[in-house]
Protein 1
Amino acid sequence: MQGFFIWFKAFFGNMLQGILQVFKGIFFGVIQIFDFSYYFKLWSDNGGSFGVADWIFSIFAFILILAVWVGIFFLIGIGIGKIVRFKKSMSSNEDFLEEIAELQRQNARLTAEKEKITQLQVTRAGLSYEQMKKELQREAEEAAMANAAGNDEEKKNKLLADRRFQRLALVDEQYAFYQSPDYDNDITLKSLCEDLRNFACSHNGLYYDIRTIRLTIAGLASTKLLILQGISGTGKTSLPYVMGKFFRNDATIASVQPSWRDRNELFGYFNEFTKKFNETEVLRRIYESGYNDDLNIVILDEMNIARVEYYFAEMLSILEMPDHNEWKIELVPSSWENDPVKLKNGNLVIPQNVWYVGTINNDDSTFSVSDKVYDRAFVVNLDSKGVPFDAPATEAKRVSYSEVESLYRQAAADYPVSEESLGKIAKLDNYVIEKFRVAFGNRIMKQLKTFVPAYVACGGSEVEGVDYMLATKVFRKFESLNLSLIRDEIRPLVSYLDSLFGKGAMKESITYLQRLQKMY
C-alpha cells in the first residue's frame, strides 16, 4: 500500500498544481492586460519614430481595445450577479414552499377538527351527518361555479385588452358556435309587402300606403342604398326601423352629425396613441352581417345634415362594383396576429346582406344631395302622412337574404320589362336629349330593368314602375337646369308622355313636371 500512497500523492499533487496554475494564470493574465506602465513604456520607446497619424491610430487602438476588455469584464460581473441573485431566489422559494406545506398540514388538521365538531352538532340537531355533508358540498359547488364565471369574465376582459378591434372580437366569440336559425321562407314579394304593412299598423301604429311599401321593397332589388325623403313627420325613420322589427333583426341607427367630414365617422379609426381601433356600431353591424344570412338594415338618419359625399363616397363606389369580391374597405394598412377572423390584411369585406337606408329632409338646415348620390340610390318620396286603416294582427317573420334575392331573380325572369315599354323609353330618351340635353344613363336603365319586375311582383303594374323611375331618375335632373329657360318645353313634354304611354298613365312624372312648371 505504501507504493499506492506515494503514487496518489504525486498524482493528486500534480493535479492541484495544475489547478493553481490555472487561477494563477488568470490572475496574472488580468494584471498583464491592464499593465498600463508597460503600454506607456512602449509609447516612450517607439514614440520617436511616430508621425501624427501613428499617434492618432495608436491612441485610438488603445482606447478601443481597452473598452472591449472593460465591456467583457463588465458582462462577466453582471452574469455572476445574476447567478447569485438566482441562487438567493431559489433559496427563498424553497423556504416559501416549506411554509406552504406547513400551512397545508395545519389546514388539514383544522379541517379534520371542524368535521368532528360539525358531526357532533349535527348529531345533536337530529340530522344525519351525510345529509349535512351533501348540503355543504352543494353550496361549495355553487360558489365554485360563481367564481368560475367571474374568472371567465376576467379572462375575457384580459383577452380583449390585447385586441385592437375589441367589439369585432366579441362578435367572433359570439358566432364561434353559431347555428343558422329557421327562416320563414315560404313567402312571395307580394305577401311580404302586405305583411310588412299590416305588421307596422298592428304592432307599431304606423300607417303606410301599400304603394310606399312596394316601392321600398322593389327599390332594394336595384340598389343597396335607399333614400327616404319628404317632409318631417311622415315616418321616414320609422319605416326601416319597423322593417328591422318585422324581419326579427333590429336595424342599426346612425345619427349623422353636421361635423361628419370623412368615412372615419361611419367606420371608426385607428388611434395611434392607444393602439386601439375606435369601432362604431355601424362597423360592428357590417362585420356581424358577414356571419349570418339575415336581412341587416343600417339607417343613416338625417343623412344630408352633412355632405353625403364626404363620409359615404367610398361606400358609393364600392357598392357600384360588379364583382362582389371587390367589395372591400381598408380599415388598417397591415394585419396583426390577433385581428378579427373576417379581417383579411386589414381589409373588411362588405357583405351583400346589408341595406343602407338614408332619411333626408329638404330644408334650409341641410345640404342638397348631389346627382352622384341620387343616381346610385333609389329614392322613395314620403310627402304625406299615412291614412289610418284596420289591419289584421300580423306576426314578424325571420326572412333570409338569400330567399329575398331569389325572389328578386325570379321576378326578373317572370316579369321582364316589355319590349313595347323599352321602345317607348328609347323614344322618350331621344326626345329629352333633343329638348333638354338630359340623357338616360346605363346605370338608370340597369336599375329600371331590375326595379320594374320586382315592383310588378310586389303587386304593382309595369307602367307604374316605369313612371316612378322616370320621375325620380330622369325628370328630377331638370332641377339642376335653368327652369326659366325650359319652362315652355315642359308642357309639350307632358303632351308627349300622354301620347306615348296613354292619357294619364304617367301620373307621377306629369305631377312632378307640373310642379316644376309652377315654380317659375
Protein 2
Amino acid sequence: MYEEDYIKRLIKSIGQMAVAIVAGRDAVQSNIKLDKFNISISEDGLLEMMVRKYVSAGKINEAQDMIIEAIKSHRSKQNYNIALLFYEKINKWDKNKLSKCNFSKQKIIEGLKNIKEDYSSFHR
C-alpha cells in the first residue's frame, strides 16, 4: 500500500516537473518546491504555465478566459502581472495572426481596460 502511494506521488511529481520544463520556466526553483519527492506548484504558477501553453497553441480566447476566471476567484499581484504579460505578448501579433485566433486589437484594449478596472477597485 505504502509503495503504491509512493509510486503515484513520484509519477505525479515527475509529470508536474515536466510541465514546468515544457512551459519554459527559467527559474523552476522559484515556482516549484521540492520536498521529499513532492512537487507543489502555486495556483498563480500553474495559471502562468497554462496561459503560456494556450498562447503558444494559438488558443487566445481560452487563455483570456482562464485569466479572467483566476482573477474572479482570487486577485493577486502575480495574476495581474500574468494578465499584463498576456496582453503585451499578443499585442505584438499582427492583425492577421490575431484574426486567425478569433481575436482583435480591440479585444486587447477591452481586456486591458477590464483588468485595470478590476484591480483599481481591488486596491481601494
Protein 3
Amino acid sequence: MDQTVKLLLVDDEPLALRRIRGFKLAARGFEIVGEAENGVQALQYVERLKPDIVVTDIGMPLMDGLELLQQLQQQPSPPKVVLLTCYEDFDKVQIALRFGAGDYLTKVMLSEDEFVSALQRTAASLRKEHEGTELIVRILLQELLLFPSENGLANLKQAGFAHDIYAIAIIRTALPLQDACAEELFAAEEEDHQRRCLPVRMSPDTWCLYFYSKQRENDASFYGWYSRQCGRIVGGLRGRKRIGDYVIAAGAVYHRPGDLPMAYQRAAAQCDAGFYTPSWVIAREDETPVFTSFPQERFRMLLADMGNAVQRGSGADAGALVSEWAHSIGTAFHPAPVQVRQMALAIHTQLEAFEWERLGETGQEVLQQKFKLAAESALHASVIVHEAKQMADMLMQSRPTASASGSMRKEIKQAMSLIAANYAGIELGETARQVSLSPSWFAALFRTATGQSFHDYVQEVRLNQARVLLRTTDLKVYEIAEQVGIPNSRYFSRLFSEHVGLTPLDYRKNDRM
C-alpha cells in the first residue's frame, strides 16, 4: 500500500465537506482525491480514482451511504468505508458494520483529532489486509505466468489485481539473489502514487518484475517511467558482485490483463537477445536476436584435434585450439546461448585429461573451475569467451609433458590423430596400414609410446567422449554407446562404470545437480 492514503468524501451537505477539507489531513498522511454528492456519483469516482478509504454520510438522496457500502462490497478489492452519522442513524450503523464498514463517526461536534484517529485505525487495518493480499497476489501471478489458464486470470482479478497499463521485465542472475536484497533493489521509486513494481521470484535465478499503473485512463508517461526504473535497477545490479553475471529484458507495454502470460513469455525469450551485448544493456522486446550456428563438423574436428593435443601433452597446441574457438564466438559465429554452453562444457571435459607439469602451479585448477562455472551459468558470451581465453593462455604457457617430447615417432602421432578423428569405427589393422607399418610392429610401437595397448587407448578415448555426450546432450545411453563405437549398451555401461566409477545415468545425474 502507498504511504499516502487516498480519501473520497461523499456528502450532500457542502458545509460538511468544507469542514473536513479544513482539517490538516496532508500532514497526517491523507489526501482527498475527490468529492461526491451521493452514492451514484461516488461509485463512478471510486472506479476512476481508486481511493483507499471512502468517507460517506449515511443519509443522502439517490443512493444513501448504506446502499453505497453494499455496492462497494461487491467489487473485487473494495475500499474501506468510514460512515458519518447523525444520532438517529445508529440502527443503520449497526447494519453497516455487519456489512463491513471500517468505522463510524457522528457528524455533530466532529473534531479533527477524532476524525484523523478514525482514519488512522482504518488505514492500519487496510495496510494489514494489503500485506496478506499482496502475498496471495504474488502466488496467483506466479501460477498464471507459469501455467496460463482462464481460471488463473479470474482468480487474479478476483483478488483485485487487474490493470489496464502494465509491463513485464525479466531479470536472470548467474547466482541466486536473496529475497531481501531483491525487494530493496527492485522496489520502484515512488514518483507518484499511481505506479508500482511488484517483484515475483519465478525460480532461484529468475525474477519477474510486474510494473503497473493504477490509472484507468491512458498513462502517457508510463513507458518513460518504466524505462527509468529498469535503468535504475541495472545500475544497482552493476554494484553487486555476489550475483555474478546478469541479464535484464524489458517487455513492451500491454493494456489487457488477458495478455499477461504472453507478455511474460516474450520478455523471458528476450533474455537470450542480450547474450552478445554488455550486461548493462537492456534487451528490448522489439530487438529480435539473430543466431548463427557454429558448424557441427568444424567443432567436431576442433574437439578431436584438442583431444589429440591433450593426449600428446602439447599445451601449446591445445591452447591454440581453445583460443581459436574463443575468438570465433561473437565474431565469425553467433551461436544460440545453449550451443555455446554445450561447446564450452565439451571443451572443459576434453581438457580435464591434460597433465600439467608446471611445478607448484595451482592456477590452472582455479581457471578450470571458473571456465566450467562460466559454461554452466554465464548469461553473456563475453564471460565464457574471457574464461576460455584465460584457459588458453595458461595452456600455452605450460611445459610439454614427457609424451610430447620429440621421442614420439611421427607414425604414432599420425595414428593418434586418426583415433581422435574416427574413434568410433577405427581398427588396429586399418590404422597400421594408413601409417605404413605392419600391424604387429605398429602395436608394439604404440604401446611403447603411450604406455597402453591400441585397444585400451581407443577404448579410453571412446569413454571420454561418452562423458562429453552425457554432460552436453540428452541422448539416451544406448544412442551414446552406438555413437562412440560400443554398440552393446550393457557392455558399454559396464566399461563406463569401471572407467568412471559411476553408471552412465548416475554420472549424468550427478553432473546436472
Protein 4
Amino acid sequence: MTGSYSALDPQKSGYGGSPTWPSEELSFDSGTAYPSSDGEKYDVTNTEERAPRSLLPLEKLVGLPMALHIGVLVLYVALCFVWIAGLERNIQVPFTSASRVQTWLNLISHLIMLAFSTAIVAVMQPITTRSPFGNLPQHLTSISDKISSWNGLGSSLLNLYHNLSFPVTLSNAILTTIYFCTLSGLGISSSFLFNVPAVNETIIRNNMATQIGSPSRSGFIPPGMNLSGIPPTFTNLTFDWFRSGVGVGMLLGNNATFYPGLSANRIYDTLSVPVSSSSNPTAVVNYTDFHVKCGSVPGVSMSAQSTSFYTDTIIVQNSSGVYGIDDLRSAVLLTIDHTSSPSSLTLYDVLSIGNDAGSNMSISRLWQPADVLIRVPNNNSLSSVGRNLILYNIYNETGRVSGSQAILDAENSPGSPWSFEIAMFPDTNYAYNISTSLMVQVIGCSLTTSTGSAQIDATTNRLLDVPPLSQGASAHSIWGDWQPDLNTSNTLEDAWAAMFLRSRSVGLWSDEPAVEPNPVKWPSIDFRYQWLLGWYGGSNGTFTREQLDDVWEKCHIPTVIEDYLTTRLFGAVTAHDEYGDTTRDPSFSNATLGALESALASATAMAMWSAARASTLMVTYHSVVTEQMATNTSAMVQDLLTIVAPVTGSTSVIEHTPVGQIILNVPSLLVGTMLSAILLALCMYILAQGDASRLENTPISDAGLLSIMSLDNSVIAARLSASSMDNVKARRRAGAFLVEIVDGRLVPVEEAD
C-alpha cells in the first residue's frame, strides 16, 4: 500500500475527528493514492469529472458477459432443435459400451457448463462487486451485502438469510440468490442431458432364399404338354396323394414334432437356410390357410344289403380258461344315394356286421383289425378334381361301446342320423330284415383357402403368431344342409377331393386279396366271403373282370386318413376286450362337427406341405383320345405324368440387434433451457438496470480489499469502532448509515455535508 491509515480510534475533530495523514505526501488518481509532485498537500482527483459519459442501456449489453450468457442459451436451444429433429437418435453405439458412452457424454456436457459457469462468475463478479461504489450514497451495510453476496451460492444464501432478519438489500439478496441458484441448476441439469438406452437396431437382409410352402400349380403340368400357362381347370389331371397321405398319421399324439412350414391348418414359406443369429431375426413370408365347412348331406337315401353269413371264431382267454366263440356275421354292402347335386351320385362301402344281439353292439370289428369309425365311401366314377367330400360316421346308439358316439354340432344336435337296418337276401323269396343298434351320419364337407403374410422366427422357421388348432373350422358349425361348392378352377381347392378317396390315398395295410383260411385283416377282395359268389352268381370261385372291378369300387381297406379322423374325434384306443371292442381315452375325445372340420383342415395342410417339400404328389395328364384312336384296339396312348417339385423364392430377413442409442433427456433439456433463459434475463437486468449501469462512476477498479483500502475510510472505521460489533446483526445495524466518496475519502453522508 502507498499510504498508512490510522487505527480505529475516535478522532477529536468532528464525528470521529479528522484522520492523521502520514508524513509521506500522496496524490490520488481515480481514487488511488500516489505521492504528490510538489510535496506539500494531498491531491485528490475528482473522479466524477474524469468519468466518461454514461452509456445507453443497449450499449451496456454488448460485451463478454452477455456473450457468455447468450452462449449458454444458444447451446441449449441448439440441443432443443437436435431433439425436435431427432438427430441424436441417428447416433448408435455398441450395446456393451452404452453405459460408458452415457457417462462420458454427461461428463463432457457438465465440464462445458462448468467452464461457462467459471467464466461467467469470473467476469460478473468484478462488475457486480465494484458497481455499488458507482451508485453512492448507499448504506455501508448495503455495500457490504452486495459485495459479499457475490462470493458464491453459499454467501448469497447467507446474505439472504441476514436480510430476512435485518432487511437492508433484500431485493438484491433475492436477485443474487436466484442468479447463483440458476447457475447451479444449469450445472446439475448438464450432468443428466444424455441417456444411452438399449434399443433394437433394424438390419434388413434382402433376397434370402426361401422354400415355397404351397405346391406349385405350374408344377402340376407335366413336361411335354403343349400348354401356355396354367389351364383354367384341372379337369384332365389326376392327383395321386398316396405318399403325401403318409404324413397325416404323424399329426396324431401330442403333436410335439415341429414341421417347418406347417402349423395347424396353415402352410407357409420358410427360409432355406435359417439365420444363425442371437439378434431375434424375423422374416415376412406368405402362407395358405385351409378352411373346411361340413354339414349334413341333403337328399340322401341309404340301404344296407347282404346275401350271406360267415362265422368268425373269437378266441377268449380269461380266468375260466381259453375257449373259442363263434361269431355269426354278414358282409354288408352300404349304398348311399345322393340325388340333390346336379348329377346323381351313388357311393358304396362294405362292412362286417354281427348278426346276434351281443355282437351287433360291437363296432370295433367292422373293418378288423382297424378301429375306424369314420369312413369315406367310394365310387370309381368320382373325379379326383373337386372341392367336396362325402364321408360318414357309424356309431352305436346305446352308447355302450367306448368311443362310439354321434358327432354333435355347435348346438349339441346329432342332425338326422340313419338307423342301420340290414336287408338280408333281397329280391329273393326268403328276404328279411335285421335291425341293429347302429346309426349312420352322412356328412358333406367343402374346402376353401385363404392367403396372407405372416412373420416367422428366422432362426427356427417357426411362426411368431401360431394359429390355433381349431382355426380351420367354421365359427359356428351346425348341421344345416350342406351346400357343395361346384365351382371349378385351377386353385389348390380343386385338387382336394382325391386326397381322401380310396384310390388316391394310402391304406393302413397292403391291399391284396386275402387267401389265408382265416384272414385277420379286412380285405377289399376276399374269395372266402360267400357273399361275393351269391351277389354276382359266380361259380367255383371265379369272377369276370367286370365283377372284380365292381368289387374294387365298392370295398376298400381302411385308410390312414380314416384312422386319423377317428382318433381326432373319439380319442386314441387304449385297449381291446376279449370280444374285440375298443376302449378309448375319453380325455382326448371331441366328437363335434367343428373338430371334424379342424381335423380335415389339418390333414389337408399336412398333405399339401408334404407335396410342396418332399416331392410326394404325382399328377397325371390324360390326353384327349380321338375317336379313331379309341376304336383302334392296337393304339396305345401314353399318359403324361410329373412329380411336383419344391419351388424356391426369396424374402427379406429383419434382424433386431441391441445397440445403445443416444437420446436427450427431455426433462433435463427443458429445465436447462428455461434456466439459461432466466440466467440471461438476470444478466440483462444486472447490467442495464442495477448498480452495474453506473459502473463507470466507481472510483476503484475492483472491490478487492487492497482496492477498497486505497480509499481513506478512517472516518468510517472510527464510527464503526464506537459501536458494538459482537454479532452479525449488531454489525449490520452499526453500518446502517449512508456513505459516499468525497475527494477520495469514504465518509458518512452527514460528514460530507
